[in-house]
Every structure is written in structure tokens, then in C-alpha cells.
Design brief:
The structure holds two protein chains of two kinds.
Chain A lengths: L8 H25 L8 H29 L5 H6 L10 H4 L5 H22 L5 H29 L3 H18 L7 H8 L6 H18 L22 H16 L6
Chain B lengths: L6 E8 L6 E7 L3 H12 L5 E8 L11 H9 L19
Classes of the chains: A mainly alpha, B alpha+beta.
């Protein structure tokens, strides 16, 4: 195993940053794939699977880059299937269980509204590889946002029951959304190196999008400012991630290196 | 089911297609979601460059039992088929 002592602080931060992007896409992608075959309508089922596949495609790009940066002769697959929950760097929001369709789409909407401006900013990243992945992922994210917004608006401003469920989903997820904008030393290092944007700017754009669309959906933005933290730095994942990974990783863990 | 989404017919023009072709149908609550669903259900393998969706109820269809009277007059008029002409290569697809 190669030691990391020769890595500079900046390259460690870049690896951490790229892992976060890959793990976000992987964990949300897997959550969406859990809907496969159980969607509320055939059309929605296929759309959910398409979203999952987009996200897994993004995961492959990010984790392949992370594996190169890591320099430990591991592949994207190794990173996805052979790491434990404590090594994951995804947002807590994305590991939340699916619950009902409305809850799944609300989680997707809150994340899409962040991904679109975030990836757009990454397109002009000083790191060309990051910029290229962002350009490809950004097109997919824009479609995801259009779709999740439509559904949040339709169900929020729908029947009494659908409105109640969407408000419940928003209330449950709101305290997790804030982690997207928690800035730590990796974010600062990436911003200083012109690799990633200032999250305050993304937060402002996110607020505009989310407020406008939730208004249209007749949903009330919770006034709580409490934020659950610990996903993106891996310090405190919730139990949900462990259960999810147990299902996702069982094949590779039981039969290492098996292939299609 | 009374509150089922309406049925939509989907037409797609392919990468090199000259016109839209009927590819199937789907259910959706409104035209915007019908368009998104058409994109998700019928263009997953890069099939199309243009999509039309139309509510099935808005299509007036011919009655299959009227097949005889409807098409009989054209059956015996072989000269209406352009098979007596050689189409020059330069003309391209007709």
C-alpha cells in the first residue's frame, strides 16, 4: 500500500471533495433504484429508474477520478462496494429512506435545486476533470430538477392527502437540507483553489429556487434552522446508511471481484 | 378507475427519420408530464430528436368494421401505385 505522506494538503482536500460528489450520486442513485418495479405508475417507475441510472453514471465518473487521486490501485467499484459506512462522504439527506413517493421526490427536489447551480459553477472549475464531469452531470441534473419540481408542485397543490404528505416530507427533510451549505476546510480549500464555488452563493440560488417552487406547491417552509450534520465529513452517518450499504454491497462482499 | 390519468399517444421523430411515428402510449395527468413521461419511457436508447404527445381521446380513428366501404374503391386501381416509374437515384428517399 502506498503511504499518503507525500500528498499535499490540497490534494487530500481534492480527493475528499471528489469522494463527496461520488458518494452523493451513489447513495441517492441507490435509493432511487430501490423504487425499481414498485413505482406508483409504470411511467414514474421508469422515470425513477432513469434518474437512478443517471446518478450511477455520475458516480462512475466521480469515483473513477477519486480512485486515481487516491493512488492506491483501487477502482471506482472498489470504492463503491468495499468501503464501510464510516468511509462514505454523502450528505445525510441522501441516505434518508424512501418512505412514500412524495417523500422520495421531495428529497430529490431539495437536492436537485442544489445540484443544478452547484454543477453549473463547477463547469468553470480550475480542475479540468471536475469541469468535464460537471458539464455532463449538469445536463442530467437540469432534467431531474424539472421533473422533481413538477411533481412537488403537482402533489403539494393536489389533493388534501397529497398536500399533507408533501408537507410532512418537507418538515422531515428540512433539517437535513442545511448540510449542503455547511462549509468546512475542504470546501474552503476547494474555493481558494478555484476548483469549487463559494457555497454561500449556491445557498442563495438554492433558496430562490426552493422558495419559489414551494410557494407554487402551496407548501410552508419550516421555520426551523436546526441542521443535521456529519454526512459529508463522515463523522456521523445515520443507521440508514449502514442498512443501505449492507444490501448494496452484499454481493461484492460475499463474492469479491465477481463480475457480470 | 375514475381518477386514472388520461391516456396519451406518443409520436417520435428519430435521428434520421423524416416524420414522426407512433411509438406507443402512456398515462399522465397533464401535457407537460405526458411529455416528460414520453421522454423517460420512449427515448431511453437515444431514439428521438422530437416528441409529440396527444391525448388519445382527441384522435378520431376510422372504424375497423367500415374497412370494406372505406378502402374498396382504391383496391382495384393499380395505376395509382408509382411502381411503373424508375425513380432516379438523385431524387433520394420519397
Amino acid at each position: 500500500m502506498i503511504t499518503h505522506s507525500n500528498q499535499t494538503a490540497d490534494s487530500r482536500h481534492l480527493l475528499e471533495f471528489v469522494l463527496r460528489q461520488g458518494d452523493n450520486a451513489l447513495v441517492l442513485g441507490h435509493r432511487m433504484s430501490e423504487w425499481c418495479g414498485t413505482g406508483p405508475a409504470l411511467e414514474e417507475d421508469i422515470a425513477l429508474a432513469n434518474t437512478a441510472l443517471d446518478l450511477i453514471g455520475q458516480t462512475q465518473m466521480w469515483l473513477a477520478y477519486a480512485a486515481e487521486l487516491e493512488g492506491r490501485d483501487r477502482s471506482a467499484n472498489d470504492l463503491a462496494f468495499m468501503r464501510d459506512a464510516t468511509d462514505f462522504r454523502n450528505l445525510l439527506l441522501l441516505e434518508q429512506p424512501n418512505r412514500d413517493f412524495g417523500h422520495t421526490m421531495m428529497r430529490q427536489f431539495l437536492f436537485d435545486a442544489y445540484q443544478v447551480p452547484f454543477l453549473q459553477a463547477l463547469e468553470s472549475s480550475a480542475d479540468q476533470r471536475v469541469a468535464d464531469i460537471a458539464a455532463k452531470s449538469g445536463r442530467e441534473a437540469r432534467y431531474h430538477l424539472e421533473r422533481s419540481s413538477d411533481i412537488v408542485i403537482a402533489l403539494g397543490d393536489g389533493t388534501e392527502e397529497s398536500h399533507r404528505r408533501m408537507q410532512d416530507a418537507l418538515d422531515r427533510l428540512w433539517s437535513y437540507a442545511g448540510e449542503m451549505f455547511v462549509t468546512d476546510e475542504t470546501d474552503i480549500a476547494m474555493h481558494n483553489a478555484a476548483i469549487a464555488p463559494d457555497l454561500k452563493l449556491i445557498h442563495a440560488q438554492w433558496n430562490d429556487t426552493v422558495q419559489a417552487r414551494l410557494n407554487k406547491a402551496t407548501l410552508a417552509v419550516p421555520d426551523s434552522t436546526f441542521v443535521h450534520k456529519g454526512g459529508k465529513n463522515g463523522v456521523r452517518h445515520e443507521e440508514h446508511l449502514g442498512h443501505m450499504l449492507a444490501t448494496m454491497q452484499v454481493l461484492q462482499r460475499s463474492y469479491p471481484n465477481s463480475v457480470w | 378507475m375514475a381518477n386514472e390519468w388520461p391516456l396519451w399517444e406518443v409520436f417520435i421523430r428519430g435521428q434520421h427519420g423524416m416524420s414522426h411515428r407512433h411509438v406507443g402510449s402512456l398515462h399522465a395527468p397533464d401535457e407537460k408530464m405526458a411529455m416528460n413521461n414520453a421522454r423517460d419511457v420512449y427515448t431511453r436508447r437515444n431514439e428521438g430528436v422530437s416528441i409529440w404527445v396527444v391525448q388519445a381521446k382527441d384522435i378520431t380513428a376510422s372504424d375497423p368494421s367500415e374497412k370494406g366501404p372505406m378502402y374498396e374503391p382504391s383496391e382495384s386501381k393499380v395505376y395509382r401505385h408509382p411502381t411503373f416509374y424508375d425513380i432516379p437515384d438523385e431524387a433520394g428517399p420519397m
